[in-house]
Design goal:
single chain; alpha/beta; Rossmann fold; two-stranded antiparallel sheet; 5 helices; 9 strands
Length: 181
């Protein structure tokens, strides 16, 4: 399966996705809607692409002007695909890829906070406790987007509010913002 980066410096380029059902890449229509919603917030942003799969969200962010993206993926084949996609697009200098379960990485991360976090956990395992912990890595005023199946319940954390919620067929995007700034 191949995916197209929609817009920006590598817009129109094709990236690979692992064979089979190891990942559930966000469709182009939903990705386009997502990036239209977040608009100019992406320019100059530090981005975390958690449960990265193909890396399409972080790559789209870099293509649209994000300063740096970190990709977290525990599946070996998906991780190799992310590294290959980043290499083929010549954006390695703006990215860091880590083969690790997101929950494990959170416990050891102590670097700069993020402007935007994309959380797209496996649809069969939404890992709300991990997603809630990710919210703690947002800068004040920063945004986290959770992709989940249907209209499932949402994780909550004090100081983090849901600012938008959009459904696209069997997928829902929930937009959270850390209060402050």
């Amino acid at each position: 399966m191949n995916l197209r980066i929609i817009s920006g410096s590598v817009g129109g380029r094709i990236i690979a996705a692992p064979d089979g059902n190891r990942t559930h890449p966000m469709g182009e229509r939903i990705r386009n809607a997502l990036f239209n919603i977040i608009g100019d917030e992406i320019k100059g942003a530090r981005v975390l692409d958690a449960f990265a799969g193909t890396g399409s969200l972080g790559i789209e962010a870099i293509s649209r002007g994000a300063k740096h993206a970190i990709f977290l993926e525990k599946d070996g084949r998906a991780y190799e695909t992310i590294v290959a996609n980043i290499t083929s697009l010549d954006i390695k200098d703006k990215t860091k890829s880590i083969k690790v379960p997101v929950a494990s990485w959170i416990t050891t991360y102590d670097d700069e906070l993020f402007d935007i976090i994309f959380a797209d956990p496996p649809y069969g395992d939404t890992q709300f406790s991990t997603v809630t912990k990710l919210m703690g890595l947002l800068k004040p005023g920063a945004l986290m987007v959770l992709s989940q199946p249907g209209r499932d319940e949402c994780p909550t954390r004090p100081g983090v509010v849901v600012v938008d919620n959009r459904s696209y067929g069997d997928a829902t995007l929930v937009f959270f913002r850390l209060e402050g700034a």
